[in-house]
Amino acid sequence: MPTDWLALSPLLFLAAGGSVVFGAGAFWRSRPREVLFALSLVTVAAAGAAVVLVEPRASSFAGVLDLGNYVRFFNFLFLAIAGLTLLFVRHYARERGFAGDEFYGLLLFAALGLALLAGAGHWLIFFLGLELLSLALYVLIAIRKGEAGSNEAGVKYFIMGAVASAFLTFGIALLYAATGSLDIGGSLGARLQPAELPLFLAALSLILVGLGFKISLVPFHLWTPDVYQGAPAPVTAFLSAGSKVALFAALLRFSLALGEAAWNYALPAIWGLAVLTMVVGNITALRQTQVKRLLAYSSVAQMGYLLMALVAVKEGGAPALMFYLAVYAVMDLGAFGILGTLSGEAADLDALEDYQGLGYARPWRAAVLGVCLISLAGLPPTAGFMGKLVLFKVVLQAHYRVLPVIGILTVIISMFFYLKVVVSLYMRPRGEGPAVSKGEASGALAGAVILILLLWLGLLPGQVLTLVGRIAG
Fold first, then answer.
1. Rounded CA gap, 344 and 341, in Å?
2. Are 246 and 183 a contacting pair, CB within 8 Å?
3. Tens digit of each residue's pLDDT (9 = 90 or more) over 131-169
4. Mean pLDDT of the chain
5. CA 183, 187, 189 angle in degrees (round to 5)?
């Protein structure tokens, strides 16, 4: 048992760090922003070190929380997302007046929610992680109290989150009624009698709808552009990169646990949702003239590519999915994070015209943003190209033909709206527009890390692909 508790140290660090940040804000009258930022960053670093250094001796904790390498991989990714978000948000939050214990403490608890989602072996732990993450995000999205757009985004995400939680709760209840178990692997992989199958499939449908709301699958995606546009840019980065990766990590676990009969019923739904999500996400993004909404629809389309590869998960597609989840997190975090560092104090830099000539006015940050966009488009030599290559490869190897063809066509469509932002950065003269932030060292450091990761994963992906292959195996 002591070794089990030691293996939980990353989660305990996050919980303790969040509590300390809240306590410092409550009892330290001056509430020094730099101390709270430093406490948060040290907490994330300590949790990350624990993930790497502590080797679990048991496969799970009390049978309800997985401790294996699959979870360690995603926990390290979540902590990297949290750490980079802290670097991106430091200057942004200080300029806008919300760099307090509420923001930093909630970000740490949100990271804890991500870890619980990915590691849950029991439906109650999964729901606890989902609600912990959601409650933190409701406040983080609306953290700018005096800004109507941020408040509206928070209310919309709250309503959609409540709807998604309702579907998930009802689905879990029906699954328990059908199988008599709240263990995720045991309930999803249960051998059922023919009379029990309809109730089981109804439960799966409700759970898929709830997850569809959370990861912006079409037709459950309509909240995404409004929330992404209204939320502060670094919060949007964390929401897009962290929340979606955690929920997709859970969805991947659910798919692997499903029995053959249930999986055969689920495949047509996954196939159809993948096509709808890829097509609608990319085509809708074509008409956007506001960069945050464009990136919102882009994130919808990216979920479609991941869902496309999910159909091949029983044929060895898990490593490709894990690799692309890491690549997606880096790309989206970088795009929204750099957008935040460019934004002035009044509002986020959003209109396409506002980016004209920034490649020369702010060359370093514009270059990182450009590489993120090129990577999202799937162009070499970036990580996005390699990620899409391995996704399409596993789908073709699983003997699906139509699905990857549709995916490739939508990738070609997506190049237009990604590259039009790059064109604005470098091929349009700088005109009159909103003020652009000068940025600071922490944001530049986060941008440098993003750039290195995108080029490393694009040019030398072998080590990570080998690692995820060993973990999935």
1. 8
2. no
3. 999 999 999 999 888 788 889 999 999 999 999 999 999
4. 89
5. 120
Three-class SS state of 288: coil
Contact partners, residue 146, CB within 8 Å, separation at least 6: none
Which residues are 351's β-sheet partners? 290
Query: 50: which residues sit within 8 A by CB, 6+ positions away?
Result: 9, 10, 13
Contact 231, 150 (CB under 8 A): yes
* Cα separation values, 259 from 247, 250, 310, Å: 20, 16, 15
On the CB side of 370, CA atoms within 13 Å amount to: 18
Q: Do the beta carbons of residue 351 and residue 422 sit within 8 Å?
A: no
pTM: 0.94
Contact indicator for 292, 229 with CB cutoff of 8 Å: yes
- Map tokens 């922003």 to a residue: 33
User: In what helix (H) or strand (E) does residue 182 lie, and over which residues does it extend?
Assistant: none
Dihedral sign of CA atoms 176, 181, 186, 190 in order? negative
Which of left, alpha, beta for 401 (phi over 0: left; psi -120 to 50: alpha)?
Answer: alpha
Contact 336, 84 (CB under 8 A): no
Nearest to 87 by CA among 453, 452, 441: 441
CA-based nearest residue to 321, from 333, 331, 332, 310: 310
The ranges assigned to domains in the chain are 2-472
The SS3 of residue 402 is helix
As given in the structure block, the two tokens for residue 112 are 């804890």
Could you say which DSSP state residue 54 is in? -
* CA nearest neighbour of 11 among 58, 59, 74: 74
Mean pLDDT to the nearest integer, 102-129: 93
Q: How many angstroms separate the CA atoms of 25 and 418, rounded?
A: 41
Peptide bond into 198 cis (omega under 30): no
Task: Write the CB contacts of 445 (distance below 8 Å, at least 6 apart in sequence).
Answer: 87
